[in-house]
Design goal:
727 residues; alpha+beta; Arc Repressor Mutant, subunit A; OB fold (Dihydrolipoamide Acetyltransferase, E2P); 6 domains; five-stranded mixed beta barrel; five-stranded mixed β-barrel; 16 helices; 36 strands; globular
């Protein structure tokens, strides 16, 4: 228990008291021979050490005999000492190291929201961080926290120290306190950042991009870009990338390493030479890198499938700056009209890219597959190929459908054989219980200068499935190799759905008028449900809800199978140019084959790597989704005030989530903006009902709505019902 400090000053007494040794002075009675201590770093630290217990600013002020005017100085010193690690801080109290209970501390990166956040915990549940804890934090900060149980029994963290600040720049809003300009993050009021003098003419509420540094007086920000137009798409894109911790540029030492890379002349020795074989690549028409190629022929009635993958690990050596950078990125991030690659272009677009007519080093999986789609045997070897022909998916689709002729007979025969094999592999996977969705992928059609021309939903092509199944089979072989040779590895896992999510889907389907009962968390149960709702008038809503009932896939050092693909073992082997998990898998296999040693294959390393890669992948996907929406909303600004047909896709207690019929983009319609009645959400029937008119709105209803507001900063689109059409 903290003991209240004895007062240093006694007021309202002018009588001299020998027993107290007091002398009257200007209306305040002072202790005789009192010596105030100067407020310095040393004196503040001395007080904390003498106390031996946690103190706040006020108790330090009293202990030093300092006037209230020194309060802000003491506060700055305490924060400085905490940042340096000389003392510890918990909420608004400070103590010497060890004074706070430290039986349960944990380190990690923070994921910040407006006034709370989470500590991302490797292999466990993320820890909630309250308003006070996140007040000093920036996106991407690496911190150490104390963990305790909250009032409701959940784990909650309080800040012990900031280990490393997140990388900038940060998108902030200009504020004014007194006569001084400050800045705060656009999505979070704290911390306040003092702005250094700059040549920019800044006004309150301007949006700026700043680099932040630590100073004895707190955080200081240098404005590197000024945005007085809140609709600047490029600025918002930079903010999203920064918020999601997406590295945009390679450091000079990484680029220098990449530039020095060469292919030794004798490197082909010991590799399987496939340069005279018919081998092709099939990719999107605008692909920047090509990391997988296919060869296929028949022998003894079986399919002899070769999946040839860019041999990235031949060039990407462990312990190099290039490898460390690739690990920190973990994936390539795909944005409208551009790619932020995991590897420098020297590797991703040149030495490792399987371009047509060039000799390239590869890592190949050779499979013999019988007519039932079963792998009779497989082998994995280092190889060298020469890509015979580069195709886009659309070209192969046209060849299969008879819309495009190709002169090379060998390539033509192989393409049709691939189409045949695709049906065999698909049938086998469906028999195993693969859950098959084809919801279509929203895409932006880009024009010049990164301008959006149109937004559409792209459905999958047969040619895409053709490649997809070949890659899945290669990944299964790689997973089989690792499980047979290691106690831990790098696996792509998709855990079983949890009972709560299954029940929610069953209830949702019943509310929509469909009796679709999933009884057990088994792939075939989900497959049957997907087949039952496919093609119905409510299929789009039911399929999306069924997809949300499934867990997210991630990486793990332990093989747990893949629920959606109904596979007992699975990994990622086929895209090492854009996924670091595949790099780890290649190294594990090569280490066992004896062609290239791997420094660390123990479970602890693989567990940490799997967690980090999964986290980086999630951040990348969030950035991709946010920036897609940013570009889409910017395109739709031209439609402000227009009446468009929308479809109700979700109903909440506050309003409708709707999707534009013409464009696959969602917006929100608030019940408060519906003037004809007061609407209530009936969750059991998935509908909204007018209290007075009893008017009903339900999922799938098409209504006319007006786009009334688009805010790029928050990525929100607001619509209101067209009263004239619904009078």
């Amino acid at each position: 228990m903290t003991i209240r400090e004895a007062p240093q000053f006694i007021t309202r007494s002018r009588k001299k008291s020998k027993s107290q040794g007091l002398i009257p002075y200007g209306g305040i009675v002072k202790r005789k021979n009192d010596r105030r201590k100067e407020v310095t770093v040393e004196s503040v630290l001395s007080v904390i050490k003498e106390k031996g217990i946690s103190v706040n600013v006020k108790s330090v002020l009293i202990a030093l005999g300092a006037p209230k005017t020194e309060r802000s100085k003491i506060k700055k010193i305490l924060k400085q000492l905490a940042r340096e690690g000389s003392i510890e801080k918990s909420r608004n109290r400070f103590a010497v190291s060890g004074a706070f209970e430290r039986s349960n501390t944990i380190q990690g990166k923070v994921d910040l929201k407006a006034d709370f956040g989470f500590l991302l915990v490797e292999g466990g549940e993320d820890i909630f961080l309250g308003r006070r804890t996140v007040a000093e934090l920036l996106p991407g900060d690496e911190v150490e926290i104390y963990v305790k149980k909250s009032r409701v029994g959940a784990r909650e963290g309080t800040l012990k120290r900031i280990i490393k600040r997140g990388d900038g720049p940060f998108m902030c809003r200009v504020k004014m306190v007194g006569t001084r300009l400050y800045a705060s993050l656009v999505f979070k009021e704290t911390p306040f950042i003092k702005l250094k003098k700059s040549d920019f003419e800044l006004k309150i509420n301007d949006i700026v991009l700043i680099e932040i540094s630590e100073t004895p007086d707190g955080l200081a920000g240098e404005v590197i870009s000024h945005l007085d137009d809140t609709d600047n798409v490029e600025m918002h894109k930079l903010f999203i990338l920064n918020k999601r911790d997406i590295r945009q540029k390679f450091h000079d030492n990484v680029l220098a390493e990449a530039d020095k890379l060469e292919i030794p002349k004798d490197v082909i020795k010991g590799r399987v030479d496939l340069r005279k074989d018919t081998i092709i690549t099939i990719d999107p028409f605008d692909a920047k890198d090509f990391d997988d190629a296919i060869s296929l022929y028949t022998e003894n009635g079986n399919y002899m499938l070769g999946v040839h993958i860019a041999d990235v690990t031949h060039f990407l050596q462990e312990g190099t700056a290039m490898d460390e950078e690739a690990y920190e990125r973990s994936v390539s991030t795909y944005l409208p009209g551009e790619v932020i690659p995991m590897l420098p272009e020297r590797l991703s677009n040149d030495m490792c890219s399987l371009v047509e007519g060039k000799d390239r080093l590869t890592f190949s999986v050779f499979m013999e597959i019988n007519p039932e789609g079963e792998v009779i045997k497989y082998d994995i070897k280092e190889s060298v190929i020469r890509n015979s022909k580069r195709f886009a998916y659309e070209q192969v689709e046209d060849i299969i459908k008879g819309r495009l002729e190709i002169k090379d007979r060998n390539i033509k025969e192989m393409v049709f054989l691939m189409a045949e094999l695709k049906d065999v592999l698909r049938k086998k996977m469906l028999e195993g219980g693969m859950v098959d969705f084809d919801l279509g992928e929203p895409i932006l059609l880009m024009g010049d200068g990164f301008q959006v021309r149109d937004i559409r939903r792209k459905m999958g092509l047969d040619s895409h499935k053709l490649i997809e199944y070949c890659m899945i089979y290669a990944n299964v072989c790689a997973a089989d190799f690792i499980t047979k040779n290691y106690s831990a590895g790098m696996f792509r896992i998709h855990p079983q759905p949890v009972e709560k999510d299954i029940m929610e889907f069953n209830d949702f389907a019943a509310a929509m008028g469909y009796i679709v009962r999933i009884k057990k968390p088994e792939s075939k149960e989900f497959q049957a449900a997907a087949a039952k709702i496919k093609g119905t008038d409510k299929s789009i809503f039911l399929e999306r809800k069924l997809l949300r009932a499934m867990q997210l896939a991630r990486y793990s050092e332990v093989n747990q199978g893949h629920f959606g693909l109904a596979l007992k073992k699975y990994t990622h082997f086929t895209s090492p140019i854009r996924r670091y998990a595949d790099v780890v898998v290649h190294r594990l296999i090569k280490n066992k084959l004896g062609t290239q040693s791997m420094k660390d294959t123990d479970k602890a390393y693989l567990k940490g790597s799997a967690y980090d890669i999964s986290t980086h992948e999630e951040n990348s996907e969030k950035a991709e989704n946010d920036i897609f929406r940013l570009y889409a909303l910017n395109f739709l600004k031209e439609k402000l005030g227009d009446t468009l047909e929308v479809i109700i896709t979700r109903i909440t207690k506050n309003g409708f989530v709707v999707e534009l019929a013409q464009y696959p983009v969602e917006g929100f319609m608030n019940f408060d903006a519906m003037r004809d009645d007061y609407y209530l959400y009936d969750e059991s029937r998935q509908m909204a009902v007018g209290r007075r008119t009893k008017k009903i709105f339900k999922l799938g209803d098409k209504i006319s709505a007006i786009i009334v507001k688009i805010t790029l900063e928050t990525l929100k689109m607001e619509l209101e019902i067209d009263e004239e059409d619904h009078a």
